[in-house]
Design a protein that fits this description.
Rossmann fold; 45% helix; six-stranded parallel beta sheet; 6 strands; disordered C terminus; globular
Amino acid sequence: MIKGILFDMDGVLVDSEEYICEAAIGYFRQRGLIVLPEDFTPFVGAGEDRYIGGVAEKYNFSILDLSEAKLQTYAIYAEIVKNRLSPMKGVVDFIRESKKRGLRLAVATSADKTKMEINLHEMGLDHGEFDVLVNGLDVERKKPFPDIYELAAGKLNLKPKDCIVIEDAVNGVQAAKAAGAFCIGITSSFSVEVLQDAGADLVVDDLSELLEFGFLTDSQTSERSGTN
Protein backbone atom coordinates (compact mmCIF):
# COMPACT_ATOMS: atom_id res chain seq x y z
CA MET A 1 0.00 0.00 0.00
CA ILE A 2 1.11 3.53 -0.72
CA LYS A 3 1.91 5.30 2.54
CA GLY A 4 3.24 8.70 1.42
CA ILE A 5 3.03 11.33 -1.28
CA LEU A 6 6.03 13.41 -2.30
CA PHE A 7 5.10 16.64 -4.07
CA ASP A 8 7.35 18.66 -6.28
CA MET A 9 6.36 22.30 -5.82
CA ASP A 10 6.66 24.47 -8.93
CA GLY A 11 4.26 23.21 -11.58
CA VAL A 12 2.59 20.79 -9.16
CA LEU A 13 1.39 22.78 -6.16
CA VAL A 14 1.68 26.18 -7.80
CA ASP A 15 1.86 27.34 -11.42
CA SER A 16 4.99 29.44 -11.08
CA GLU A 17 7.28 28.33 -13.89
CA GLU A 18 6.58 31.37 -16.06
CA TYR A 19 7.34 33.69 -13.14
CA ILE A 20 10.73 32.22 -12.24
CA CYS A 21 11.57 32.31 -15.94
CA GLU A 22 10.60 35.98 -16.06
CA ALA A 23 12.69 36.64 -12.95
CA ALA A 24 15.75 34.87 -14.34
CA ILE A 25 15.43 36.73 -17.63
CA GLY A 26 15.25 39.95 -15.59
CA TYR A 27 18.39 39.00 -13.69
CA PHE A 28 20.36 38.40 -16.88
CA ARG A 29 18.98 41.60 -18.40
CA GLN A 30 20.31 43.53 -15.40
CA ARG A 31 23.68 41.95 -16.09
CA GLY A 32 23.56 43.03 -19.74
CA LEU A 33 22.63 39.67 -21.31
CA ILE A 34 19.44 39.02 -23.28
CA VAL A 35 18.21 35.43 -22.95
CA LEU A 36 15.06 33.65 -24.16
CA PRO A 37 12.39 31.70 -22.25
CA GLU A 38 13.18 28.53 -24.20
CA ASP A 39 16.79 28.68 -23.00
CA PHE A 40 15.58 27.54 -19.58
CA THR A 41 13.49 24.56 -20.72
CA PRO A 42 16.22 21.88 -20.32
CA PHE A 43 16.79 22.98 -16.72
CA VAL A 44 13.19 23.03 -15.47
CA GLY A 45 12.96 21.04 -12.26
CA ALA A 46 16.72 20.85 -11.72
CA GLY A 47 16.95 23.70 -9.22
CA GLU A 48 18.10 27.27 -9.69
CA ASP A 49 21.81 26.35 -9.71
CA ARG A 50 21.26 24.65 -13.07
CA TYR A 51 18.35 26.87 -14.10
CA ILE A 52 20.50 29.99 -13.94
CA GLY A 53 23.91 28.38 -14.31
CA GLY A 54 22.92 26.26 -17.30
CA VAL A 55 21.73 29.27 -19.27
CA ALA A 56 24.86 31.20 -18.32
CA GLU A 57 26.96 28.33 -19.66
CA LYS A 58 24.99 28.29 -22.91
CA TYR A 59 25.96 31.90 -23.54
CA ASN A 60 29.48 31.54 -22.11
CA PHE A 61 28.42 34.13 -19.56
CA SER A 62 30.50 34.32 -16.40
CA ILE A 63 28.67 34.30 -13.05
CA LEU A 64 31.23 34.90 -10.33
CA ASP A 65 28.89 34.19 -7.43
CA LEU A 66 25.99 31.84 -8.19
CA SER A 67 24.57 32.22 -4.67
CA GLU A 68 24.31 35.98 -5.15
CA ALA A 69 22.81 35.47 -8.61
CA LYS A 70 20.09 33.30 -7.08
CA LEU A 71 19.37 35.82 -4.35
CA GLN A 72 18.97 38.58 -6.93
CA THR A 73 16.71 36.35 -9.03
CA TYR A 74 14.59 35.44 -5.99
CA ALA A 75 14.24 39.12 -5.10
CA ILE A 76 12.87 39.81 -8.58
CA TYR A 77 10.67 36.70 -8.33
CA ALA A 78 9.20 37.78 -4.99
CA GLU A 79 8.06 41.07 -6.50
CA ILE A 80 6.64 39.41 -9.62
CA VAL A 81 4.54 36.83 -7.74
CA LYS A 82 3.23 39.11 -4.98
CA ASN A 83 -0.54 38.49 -4.73
CA ARG A 84 -0.43 36.42 -7.94
CA LEU A 85 0.08 32.86 -6.72
CA SER A 86 -2.56 30.40 -5.60
CA PRO A 87 -2.60 26.61 -5.31
CA MET A 88 -3.16 24.85 -8.60
CA LYS A 89 -6.49 23.21 -9.37
CA GLY A 90 -7.25 20.33 -7.04
CA VAL A 91 -4.26 20.87 -4.74
CA VAL A 92 -6.09 21.85 -1.56
CA ASP A 93 -8.70 19.10 -1.90
CA PHE A 94 -6.04 16.51 -2.77
CA ILE A 95 -3.96 17.40 0.28
CA ARG A 96 -7.05 17.29 2.50
CA GLU A 97 -8.14 13.91 1.14
CA SER A 98 -4.62 12.48 1.41
CA LYS A 99 -4.39 13.48 5.07
CA LYS A 100 -7.87 12.10 5.71
CA ARG A 101 -6.66 8.73 4.45
CA GLY A 102 -3.63 8.79 6.71
CA LEU A 103 -1.02 9.33 4.03
CA ARG A 104 2.19 11.15 4.99
CA LEU A 105 3.01 14.19 2.88
CA ALA A 106 6.27 15.86 1.87
CA VAL A 107 7.34 18.69 -0.38
CA ALA A 108 10.54 17.85 -2.26
CA THR A 109 11.50 20.85 -4.38
CA SER A 110 14.79 21.45 -6.16
CA ALA A 111 14.34 25.16 -5.47
CA ASP A 112 16.21 26.74 -2.59
CA LYS A 113 14.47 27.33 0.74
CA THR A 114 14.01 31.03 -0.07
CA LYS A 115 11.85 30.30 -3.10
CA MET A 116 9.99 27.50 -1.33
CA GLU A 117 9.07 29.90 1.47
CA ILE A 118 7.95 32.58 -0.99
CA ASN A 119 5.69 30.08 -2.75
CA LEU A 120 4.12 28.71 0.42
CA HIS A 121 3.45 32.21 1.70
CA GLU A 122 1.92 33.48 -1.53
CA MET A 123 -0.20 30.32 -1.93
CA GLY A 124 -1.49 30.62 1.61
CA LEU A 125 -0.40 27.08 2.46
CA ASP A 126 0.74 26.55 6.03
CA HIS A 127 3.90 24.52 6.70
CA GLY A 128 1.76 22.26 8.85
CA GLU A 129 -0.04 20.95 5.77
CA PHE A 130 3.03 18.78 5.17
CA ASP A 131 4.89 16.37 7.44
CA VAL A 132 8.24 17.18 5.81
CA LEU A 133 9.65 20.02 3.71
CA VAL A 134 12.80 19.31 1.68
CA ASN A 135 14.46 21.86 -0.61
CA GLY A 136 17.37 21.92 -3.02
CA LEU A 137 19.82 23.05 -0.36
CA ASP A 138 19.27 19.77 1.48
CA VAL A 139 20.93 17.65 -1.22
CA GLU A 140 24.12 18.02 -3.19
CA ARG A 141 22.92 16.19 -6.29
CA LYS A 142 19.78 17.71 -7.75
CA LYS A 143 17.14 16.12 -9.97
CA PRO A 144 17.37 14.03 -12.18
CA PHE A 145 19.37 12.26 -9.46
CA PRO A 146 17.07 10.48 -6.97
CA ASP A 147 18.62 11.99 -3.84
CA ILE A 148 15.89 14.47 -2.94
CA TYR A 149 13.13 11.87 -3.15
CA GLU A 150 15.18 9.33 -1.21
CA LEU A 151 15.75 11.98 1.47
CA ALA A 152 12.10 13.07 1.61
CA ALA A 153 10.87 9.47 1.89
CA GLY A 154 13.45 8.77 4.57
CA LYS A 155 12.34 11.79 6.61
CA LEU A 156 8.82 10.33 6.48
CA ASN A 157 10.29 7.02 7.73
CA LEU A 158 9.27 5.45 4.43
CA LYS A 159 10.97 3.94 1.42
CA PRO A 160 10.52 5.59 -2.00
CA LYS A 161 8.72 2.47 -3.28
CA ASP A 162 6.05 3.13 -0.63
CA CYS A 163 5.45 6.64 -2.03
CA ILE A 164 3.83 8.35 -4.96
CA VAL A 165 5.82 11.22 -6.46
CA ILE A 166 3.92 13.98 -8.25
CA GLU A 167 6.02 15.87 -10.79
CA ASP A 168 5.69 18.24 -13.72
CA ALA A 169 9.21 18.15 -15.19
CA VAL A 170 11.33 15.63 -17.06
CA ASN A 171 14.18 15.97 -14.55
CA GLY A 172 11.79 15.32 -11.69
CA VAL A 173 10.13 12.29 -13.29
CA GLN A 174 13.53 10.77 -13.93
CA ALA A 175 14.52 11.43 -10.31
CA ALA A 176 11.34 9.78 -9.03
CA LYS A 177 11.81 6.67 -11.15
CA ALA A 178 15.49 6.45 -10.23
CA ALA A 179 14.41 6.45 -6.58
CA GLY A 180 12.02 3.60 -7.26
CA ALA A 181 8.78 5.52 -6.70
CA PHE A 182 5.52 5.47 -8.63
CA CYS A 183 5.39 8.78 -10.51
CA ILE A 184 2.42 10.85 -11.63
CA GLY A 185 3.12 13.57 -14.17
CA ILE A 186 1.23 16.88 -14.28
CA THR A 187 1.05 18.56 -17.70
CA SER A 188 1.66 22.11 -16.49
CA SER A 189 5.16 22.33 -18.00
CA PHE A 190 5.53 19.44 -20.46
CA SER A 191 3.22 17.42 -22.69
CA VAL A 192 1.77 14.00 -21.94
CA GLU A 193 4.13 12.42 -24.45
CA VAL A 194 7.24 14.06 -23.01
CA LEU A 195 6.35 13.04 -19.45
CA GLN A 196 5.56 9.49 -20.53
CA ASP A 197 8.84 9.27 -22.41
CA ALA A 198 10.60 10.41 -19.22
CA GLY A 199 9.04 7.47 -17.39
CA ALA A 200 5.87 8.80 -15.73
CA ASP A 201 3.55 5.94 -14.76
CA LEU A 202 0.44 8.10 -15.08
CA VAL A 203 -0.09 11.58 -16.54
CA VAL A 204 -2.97 13.95 -15.73
CA ASP A 205 -3.68 17.63 -16.24
CA ASP A 206 -4.05 18.44 -12.55
CA LEU A 207 -4.70 16.87 -9.16
CA SER A 208 -8.47 17.27 -9.45
CA GLU A 209 -8.39 14.52 -12.08
CA LEU A 210 -6.90 12.11 -9.57
CA LEU A 211 -9.73 12.83 -7.15
CA GLU A 212 -12.26 12.30 -9.93
CA PHE A 213 -10.61 8.97 -10.75
CA GLY A 214 -10.87 7.94 -7.12
CA PHE A 215 -7.10 7.52 -7.07
CA LEU A 216 -6.83 7.91 -3.31
CA THR A 217 -9.22 5.07 -2.52
CA ASP A 218 -7.39 2.08 -1.14
CA SER A 219 -8.15 -0.13 -4.14
CA GLN A 220 -7.18 2.45 -6.74
CA THR A 221 -3.94 3.34 -4.98
CA SER A 222 -2.93 -0.32 -4.72
CA GLU A 223 -3.85 -1.13 -8.32
CA ARG A 224 -2.12 1.87 -9.89
CA SER A 225 1.02 1.55 -7.82
CA GLY A 226 1.37 -2.14 -8.49
CA THR A 227 1.30 -3.00 -4.78
CA ASN A 228 -0.88 -5.52 -2.98
